[in-house]
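Exam revision sheet. Question 4 asks you to relate a sequence to its structure. Input first:
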Amino acid sequence: VQLVESGGGLAQPGGSLRLSCAASGFTFSNYGMSWYRRAPGKERELVASISGAGGFTNYADSMKGRFTISRDNAKNTVYLQMNSLKPEDTAVYYCNAWIGTRGYWGQGTQVTVSS
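Answer key, structure tokens:
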């Protein structure tokens, strides 16, 4: 199993970024996917989740209305569209898949929101 995130970078407050996570090594469409983040000095927190077929999504309260999780099962990729970014969104964002009893993680992509 391999998860590779991309798309992070520097954004201004109010700006947007789109993260991508390319997955391989498992039947992607069979599994829900999630995005987590870890801000400096804080514990890792769930950002959003999406079901295998993409019909069900779930968001942390602070991300509702600003972030959108989606997936393209033909490309084995899950996305996180982040709009109206705030400085407190600064964190390393990780892609996650739970397969059986094991969680798999990407290496993370840094998102910095600053003027």
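Marking note for examiners. The CA atoms of residues 38 and 56 lie 24 Å apart.
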